[in-house]
Each structure stands twice: as structure tokens, then as C-alpha cells.
Amino acid sequence: MANTSFAVNHPMARKVWATKLMREALKETFVSRFMGTSKNSLCYVKEDLTRGAGDTIYYGLRMQLSGDGITGDDTLEGNEEELAIYRDSILIDQLRHAVRSGGEMSEQRVPFSVRQEGLDGLKDWYAARIDTAFFNQLGGVDTAVSPYIGQNTVTAPTSAAGNTRVLYGAGSTSTTASFTATSSNSGSIRQVNFQLPAIDKMVNQAKIATPLIRPLMIDGKAKYVCFLHPNQVRQLRTNAAAGTVTWFDIMRARAEGGGYKENGIYSGALGEYNGVILHESSRVPSLSTDSNVKKALFCGAQAACFATGRRDSDRQMKWTEEFFDYENQLGIAAAMIWGLKKTVFASGPAGATVDFGTIVTFSHSPNPA
């Protein structure tokens, strides 16, 4: 009887395993539930380079018209309004890694497939790189190094006066210098824990920002997403100060959420408060100069952008198997062409930049004693 099989190095086998690795790596990421090709997605997937050559995608944002218009029979000609278009770009590049067996005798001693374990190991490796890049980009972690920045330059959170995307907790107007300038209790930002009023502050800022931070629309309702470090979540859970909204209010809102749980953006959520869906991740970054200071990441639609290479070739995900030492050792390599970045648009004639969909809020959230 003739059997159809795909041996090591078979061209079809390499394509199948490459596709499998791409699919499983993205599925394992934390950020995948927030990805989508719709402009209503938190992480906007750009597919322009999946169909053609190139390494950069440019995309624009059209601002809302703000003119008064013309009433009655007054002359419209000559009173037209200029469209305001902002622009950003994302770069894709190759990221590779490989594993190699110790030899046939080494493989003989274990009851598993080196090929399968190689797939699983590379899957986890790529998933970690994508997730870490997502949080480094949104948090503006300029101390991060490649390949932890999604192949794109990291920019600090926008802090221009009147258009800031940086907040310091409810009731605080401190700057990042305060985190390292003093450790005293008097007026120190170090004493500002993460509490729910900080979320209210972020929601308010999102609504008055220019350009405004557009919410995600879920079943016709406007929602934002906020990513919190486990230390910030612990502070929310243990805060029971009189006269304040507490963790129990979040739990009640979660119980009353109804059918929204079918939407992927709610998967694994801690709960919801003031139209903000809360998610927890240990990859939420710290202040580079003080690990006790965490950055809560508040996001609206198109806060980040993700892109890959062409689907019809090895430029999206490539799987390569080779033998070494007279076919005694099997080596497996994977290469992925991709990019991920925070969405930042240039605005105004001076070319100033503005974080389009992200607000960063600092809090003193150390590890528990």
C-alpha cells in the first residue's frame, strides 16, 4: 500500500510547518485578542505588504472638519475648509531564531519529537517577542532593545502642554523627576498608588484630547481598554478607603456586563469600570529609573499597528530544516518578517508628534513587602 508522507526538508512540509508556526504563535500572544483589520481594533493590522513588496507602510488619519459652514444663500465658494491629514508609518523587518538537536543518540533517549518541540519552543519565543514589543511600544520604553521593540523606534509618551498623554494618578500633577528626586512622604509621587480615580482621569483626558482618543465600538457602545501591572491590580483589590469607588464596584459592573463577554476583547478581562475594560499583564512596563513605578496603559482604537510580510512567499513566516554532521543533527530555523508600533501622528506645521490612541499613567506600585 502506498502512503503519502512529507519527510524532513520536503518543500510542502516546510510550508505547512511555517503556516502552523505563524498561526500558533499569534494565537498564543496576549495581544492577539486586540488585533483586527478594522479601524475599530485596538491593534490595527495593516495588510498592505502581505500582497506586495516593500518594507514600510504609510497610513493617514483624517481629522474631523471643524468649520462653521455656510447658511442660506451666502457664498460657499472661497470658504471651503482644508482637510487635515496626519500621517504615520510602520516598518517591517526579519527576526530569526533556531534550535538544534544534540544528535540521533540524544534523541533516542527521550520520548518526544525534536521537530515538534522545536515548533513549540519557537512558537513561545515569537509570542513573547510580539507581546513584549506591544507593551514596550505603548509604554514608550526607550531602554528596550531589539528584538523587543517590534522593529520600530520607540517614542516616549506625548507630554506637550495642552495635549498630554501622560498622567500621574488622581490628584497628582507631578513629573517623572519626582519618582527619583525624593522618597519622602511629603508631596511625593511615590505615595500615589493606583486607584480607580486614575481611570476617571484618563477617560476625561481621552475625551478632551486633540486629536481625541477614539473609543472602541462594541455592540454600539463606546469602550476603552486599560492594561495594568499585577502590582497595580493588587492596589485596586485592597483599596477600601471610605467614600471611594472600590474593586467591588468593578466586580458588580462585570456581573452586569451581559452579552459583551462574547466579544474577544473581554476575554480574560478583570472587569469594567466607567466604560474601560481592565486587563492585567506582567509585561506592563516600569519606569526605567525606578522599578517601583508602573505605567498603566490606557488605549483606544488604533492605539497600535501590526504588519507582516507577504503571505504568498517565505516573507511572512519561513520554516527551514537542515541536517549537520553527516545528518546526525537536525537544525530548525524560523524567520518572521513583521513590525509592531504605537500609532503616532505628526500634527501641525512644525511636525510635532502626538500619541494617537494611548495615555500612560504612572503610579507607585512596588512589589508587596
Gist?
The chain has 369 residues and is an alpha+beta fold.
Number of helices: 7
Cα-atom radius of gyration: 24 Å
Q: Give the CA-CA distance, first to last residue.
A: 68 Å
The percent range for strand residues is: 25-35%
The count of strands amounts to 18
Per the CATH scheme, the topology name of the largest domain is: Major capsid protein gp5 fold
Outline the secondary-structure elements:
Layout: H1 11-28, E1 35-36, E2 43-46, E3 56-62, E4 85-91, E5 93-100, H2 104-108, H3 114-139, E6 166-167, H4 177-181, H5 196-208, E7 216-218, E8 221-228, H6 230-238, H7 247-255, E9 271-273, E10 276-280, E11 286-287, E12 290-299, E13 304-308, E14 317-324, E15 329-342, E16 344-347, E17 352-355, E18 358-364
Parallel strand pairs: 1-2, 2-13, 6-18, 8-10
Antiparallel strand pairs: 3-4, 5-15, 7-8, 8-12, 9-10, 11-12, 12-18, 13-15, 14-15, 16-17
Helix pairs in contact: 1-3
Structural descriptors:
18 strands; 28% strand; 8-stranded mixed sheet; 369 residues; Major capsid protein gp5 fold; 6-stranded mixed sheet
Task: Give structural notes.
With 369 residues, this protein is α+β, with helices and mostly antiparallel strands. The protein folds into two domains: 11-63 and 83-150 and 305-347, Major capsid protein gp5 fold (2-Layer Sandwich); 166-303 and 350-364, no CATH class. It has seven helices and 18 strands. Strands 6, 7, 8, 9, 10, 11, 12 and 18 form an eight-stranded mixed beta sheet that branches. Strands 1, 2, 5, 13, 14 and 15 form a six-stranded mixed beta sheet that branches. Helix 1 (11-28) packs across helix 3 (114-139). The termini are far apart.
